[in-house]
Design brief:
Blueprint: E1 2-9, H1 16-23, H2 26-33, E2 39-46, E3 50-56, E4 60-68, E5 71-80, E6 83-94, E7 97-106, H3 108-133
Antiparallel strand pairs: 1-7, 2-3, 3-4, 4-5, 5-6, 6-7
Helix pairs in contact: 1-3, 2-3
């Protein structure tokens, strides 16, 4: 397994509470972090606590979101010809930052692609989440 962490400082005046509300709103989270989202549907669970979604983006994958204190846990499972890739992330608003701890699992090729994708896109995801959090009424 490979792991990495990303952190973005929250702008002055944006509360961690607003960011947490954004993270725990599954509809908003999906629309914000799936940068090439085409469609999604609830597969099972409760969007207010824990739910699994079928996502159509550049690829198809399952996304499970679990609301926890301080943020949300996400698990992406994507199957591709190169093998199955699993990205497990802990998104937290803590200490004036939006922090994401990510564990990447799969075969060697899948992990390389997963890590490259994280490095290329997750900073933009964090930026978009912070922007959306500024619009949320706490």
């Amino acid at each position: 397994m490979a792991s990495t962490s990303l952190s973005t400082t929250l702008p002055t005046g944006l509360s961690e509470k607003n960011v947490i509300l954004c993270l725990q709103n599954h509809d908003l989270f999906i629309k914000t972090v799936c940068l090439s989202l085409q469609s999604y549907k609830l597969e099972s669970g409760d969007p207010n606590t824990e739910a699994t979604y079928d996502i159509v983006d550049k690829t198809n994958f399952k996304l499970t979101l679990t609301n926890v204190e301080g943020g949300v846990n996400s698990v992406i499972v994507a199957s591709a010809p190169i093998g199955t890739l699993t990205l497990s992330s802990k998104w937290r608003a803590v200490d004036g930052n939006l922090k994401e701890d990510i564990v990447i699992d799969g075969n060697k090729v899948a992990k390389m692609i997963g890590k490259a994708t994280v490095e290329r896109s997750h900073s933009e995801m964090q930026k978009r989440l912070i922007e959306e959090s500024g619009k949320v009424q706490a």
